[in-house]
Amino acid sequence: MNPAPGHPPGGPSPAGADGPPEPEQHRTPAPGPLVREHPPGHRHRSGQTALVFLYRNGTHRVMWPHHTESHGSALLRRPSGVFEVLIGRNVTRFGLELPAAGDGVFFQAEVEVHWEVEEPHRVVVQRVWDVADMLRAPLMDGLRGVSRRFGLTEAERAEAAIRDELRTGRLLPGRDLGLRTDVYVFITLDAAVRDQVAEAGQELVGMGVDKQKAVRMQRQDTYQHDLVVQRARHLEVLFREGEMGQIAYLMAANPDKQWEIRKQLLDERRERQGDFFQAFTRLIDNGVLERHEIDETLRPVLDH
After folding, report:
1. Whose C-alpha in 16, 76, 263, 267 is 20 to 30 A from the C-alpha of 119?
2. CB within 8 A of 12, min separation 6: which ones?
3. Domains along the chain?
């Protein structure tokens, strides 16, 4: 037969649940707070544990190291079960998987629970043989909503958020079990995940560098475009005002071409009164000027 939930293998049910418990004297001590069950006549006091006596009429007594509490008129009755409960400050550690953002990825967390028994009778009734077994599910349920907000690369932020959630007091793990607890959660990363986080961090850095480079290139393109527009407007003004010599000087890469460019522009202006760019295009089309002979700083002006 499988043991009842919360019991170590072979553990009995306390009185008041499934009838009188069957004493077991040689069980290996459990992780606690429930340590072991004794025969009904056991009355040995210990400085580290309290004894809980259960009676068939539903009453109970708690024998602390230095005093005894009676809950009901059970002084003259024989107990149906005696349970030893660990007292004082204790620590239990266990692992916990908390979901991260995304599908099928988890934070590996180490949980450290500092606990102390406040109500030994409740510990017995709730069958708290192992704190880790009893608190794992409530902690998972209470913290997974927090951890899901963060990806594996945000383990530090996830741990801080979990710590803040535990400090709010909304989660009181162990209170319904007769325990007072302080819970600490530490997220750990194995070697594979650490490598993944480092790689992701490098990618983020690279993305940041690429973004900065793209912004610089965009700014440079904008500047070049504005410069081209400004030069084009300047040349148009010069053309309208008849400053052919200055135009020729600005446009010719080869100084020997300046006079020929100037002469052709004057002819164009006299004959057609067209705009500057049409005139200059005809110079190229007629073979007066080759594109490679144009000053390179003004080639974008013509392309524009």
Report:
1. 76
2. 21, 22, 23, 24, 37, 81
3. 11-86 (no CATH), 88-189 (3.30.479.30), 228-303 (no CATH)
